[in-house]
Amino acid sequence: MNESGSGQTAPAARSTSVSVDVPAKINPHLGVGDARADGFHALSTVYQAISLYDTVTAERGDESGVKLTISGEGAGVLPTGEDNLAVKAAKLVAIYGGVEPDVRIHLNKRIPIAGGLAGGSADAAGTLVACARLWEVEIGDAELHRLAAGLGSDVPFCLKGGTAVGSGRGEELTRVAAKGPWHWVVATTDTQISTPECFKEVDRLREDGIGRFSSDVDAIVRAFESGVGADKLAHLLVNDMEAAAVSLRPQLASLMHGGLEEGALAAHVSGSGPTVLFLASDVKHAVALARRIRMRGGARSVHIAEGPVAGPAA
Ligand code: C5P
Predict the structure, then answer these.
(1) What is the pLDDT of residues 280-314, one digit of tens each?
(2) From the CA of 229, how far away is ligand 1's center (Å)?
(3) What is the pLDDT of residues 183-204, one digit of tens each?
(4) CA 246, CA 138: separation in Å to the nearest integer?
(5) Ligand 1 centroid to 84 CA: how many Å?
(6) For residue 7, is it within any domain?
(7) Which residues are near ligand 1 (CB < 6 Å)?
(8) Ligand 1, closest atom to CA 151?
(9) Structural domain tally of the chain?
(10) Which residues contact 290 (CB under 8 A, 6 or more apart)?
(11) Is residue 192 located within the same domain as residue 296?
């Protein structure tokens, strides 16, 4: 985090600008249960934060209100008004702290949008932290978690980062002391999948008897805690949404097969997709694999990332 502004005059002077880097998340295990009465699905997931970051900058504005601008991924496409989770997050901090919001928020986005990497949730988490620091609003851990969970199921994890088991609708977290790092190639596609759309497809496939709830996370949690080699981790990756994502975007299958042919240890749809993750054995392998997947075509962009990394409120 960087703070700038009036710091040179007095140590206690208020910042005029706060920047927070907030990582993307992946789900090495994503078990999806039945839809609950509230419409959300019961989840049994393992989250891990990876080194692909959006930067949230909160600056004191001249006028009252919350102004949002976006550069990078999704600029010109994502909403910048009340519909953006970052605007909602800033307003929640203002209400909680009893302050009049007077903030310009800028999102410099590198996390691909609608790709199953929780970019929007990451921005909300980053905004909670940045605005609390800018306005000097003290928010305890439990309260911050409550505000985050009200914004979205993934937002609590995006605050913490690292590795965690998620239950409930994904918002109930238990930290996992994972060793690592593990190395991933992250391949985005030029389509998007909305999260609700993918959950509906899971329900539809289940009605046809396809897929079941992978509720047991013990093996992969133990593997992360013991710092298991990537070759073994490859056999433990689970995503109950993968069949739904491939059913919605059949071109994912050839992207996944292509990465495996190029030597990936595993191909794994990220969350509700359509981003595909390829597991590499080490950083050197990840760099070479990324180059080969790029040359093969079929992906919109190809990145390398490692996990776990810390979140902004770790
Ligand atoms: O929690 P969040 O607002 O990110 O969820 C977006 C949508 O994804 C929900 O409205 C719901 O349709 C679906 N969802 C779900 N079960 C979950 C999490 C999300 O059905 N556990």
Answers:
(1) 999 999 999 999 999 999 999 999 999 999 999 99
(2) 32
(3) 999 999 999 999 999 999 999 9
(4) 44
(5) 16
(6) no
(7) 39-41, 43, 152-154, 169-170, 195-196, 199
(8) 3
(9) 2
(10) 185, 302, 303, 304
(11) yes
